Amino acid sequence: MLLKILIFSIAVYQVSPLQGGTNVGVGTFPSFVAIFLPTPTTICGGVILNNNHVLTLTSCMLNLNYQLLPANQVSIMTGWNTLDFNRPRTQVQAIYVHPRYSPFTLDNDVAVIRSLTPFIFPEVANPAVAPVLISDRIAFDTMACNLAAWNRNNSQLQTINPSIPIINRDQCNELAVNFGRLSEGMLCAGSIVAGSGVCATNIGAALYCNGRIEGILNSGFGCGAANNPGVYVQARMYEQWIQEQIRRQDIPAANSFPLERLP
């Protein structure tokens, strides 16, 4: 088991582009953002929840020692379909990570970040920036959903056409790469046969089902390999926790150890 965990942890940091991705235009996924980080990951995805909060991953908000990143070193790019370090970005005021996040199973890998200034939502028919609602229904097996991911190789916002299906969690847990680690707070999507698939540099990719956010990609970086579909944090399972973070007034200290149990 320990060997499998180590292999899994190392695999998270492999560098490859989204396999089978197709470029999309500005406004295709108006809630999807790029979060710029002072870590080896560099870029993590997330989605806008309201005018100053973004849903993302705890694993993106910690350094290699599991300390909280300084909020003033994290920034958010909204409204674009290409990555550009020279574009204006919104600074971050506070980072709220889940205290029960497990770096080994990746359970509870969810975080909320608060922007220093509000996001502007244009009042037009097809805005480039807009918030998204969290799904309030169970994503049934084979349900067709849409993926938004940053392809770091060509700096483009991409999707996998026409859609990717939800995979039964029990079936996903039976795959050797997962060794039964998937909890009720996770879901699988993609394919178990070789083809299109997500990679490590797509971390934080957003899975939309029926126009709502269903999950945030945190593992299953098979890059299209067989029997290694993407694994996502299931947003609806953390709705209450997310709302609690949005209401918080405190600002967690940079470089603190926010996890209840360290690895």
TrEMBL record:
Residues 18-247 form the Peptidase S1 domain. The keyword Signal applies. Keywords: Disulfide bond, Hydrolase, Protease, Serine protease, Signal. One of its GO terms (biological process) is proteolysis. InterPro entries: Peptidase_S1, Peptidase_S1_PA, Peptidase_S1_PA_chymotrypsin, Trypsin_dom. Residues 1-17 form the signal peptide. One of its GO terms (molecular function) is serine-type endopeptidase activity. Belongs to the peptidase S1 family. CLIP subfamily. This is Peptidase S1 domain-containing protein. It comes from Polypedilum vanderplanki. The lineage of its organism: Eukaryota, Metazoa, Ecdysozoa, Arthropoda, Hexapoda.
